Amino acid sequence: MNVKFLSPLLLLLATATVGRVAAQCDSLGYRAAVYVSANGDSLPYRLLTPDTVVPGQHYPLVLFLHGAGERGRDNCAQLRHGAARFVDSTARRQFPAYVLFPQCPSDEFWPAILRQDHFGRGANPFPLSQPMSRPLRLADELLEHTITQFPIDTMRIYVVGLSMGGMGTLDLVSRRPQRFAAAVAICGGVNVHRLELLRGTRTRFRLIHGDADPVVPVRFSREAAAALRRAGASVEYIELPGVGHGSWYNAFRRPDFLEWLFEAKN
To answer: What is the tens place of the pLDDT at every residue in 167-184?
Structure first.
């Protein structure tokens, strides 16, 4: 085998694959950009804007936090799950909105967490005293930056997350109890004591989890829903019988997914 010939060929194939994947991401209509903080930290993200922005009108803003499998620096993989739900013609017409998809680096996590995976039957792995993780802090800064740059209705800001992103969703809302009108946490988890900070919040919650999830124990969402109710928050808990870790497929297929989200106001 001619190794000298093979290496350039593999490089060409890899480049073509990367280009094809990037083109697929671009075809969804999310613009690629990188947020750079005041101290030089950076976070790649994608932004969807309404088809038409009417002067004087303000629009909802959705922050979407992806799962651990979509981490990286390609500014593309984070669109794998959920992004298409916001771009079909019906959604664009009925629910014009700005939608943010930041991408967490491959060696970090949205939530402040003690264990990376394999949660098993052990104790809740989310520390109470841990500060906001670096990527979640950057996503929060990106959210606030976007609010200042575009005509955003600050009474209609939402956060959605799945798996690691569902954990990040509950983490972020507990630290920003007055920011979000609605939050959807899919197969997530949180230190339930952190949810005590949400007493009096106007954020409404939808928690979704498959009862056969082998990755993130369903008890995490059961405990979070119970804690939110104790705090007086409005929460809908949906448990999916026989569904494993990919409960986001069921969540995004719900006919009321977008309607439930966008009808919420702070």
So the answer is: 999 999 999 999 999 999
Q: What pLDDT does residue 14 have?
A: 39
Q: Average per-residue pLDDT in the chain?
A: 90
Phi, psi of 160 (to 5 degrees): -130, 140
DSSP assignment of 113-175: -S--S--TTSS----SSPPPPHHHHHHHHHHHHHHHHTTEEEEEEEEEEETHHHHHHHHHHHH
The answer to whether 66 and 99 are in contact (CB under 8 A) is no
Is the CB of residue 98 less than 8 Å from the CB of residue 150?
yes
Closest CA to 169 of 120, 212, 220, 210: 220
Cα–chain center distance at 51: 22
Let me know: does 173 contact 228? Beta carbons within 8 Å. Answer: no
Contact 28, 84 (CB under 8 A): yes
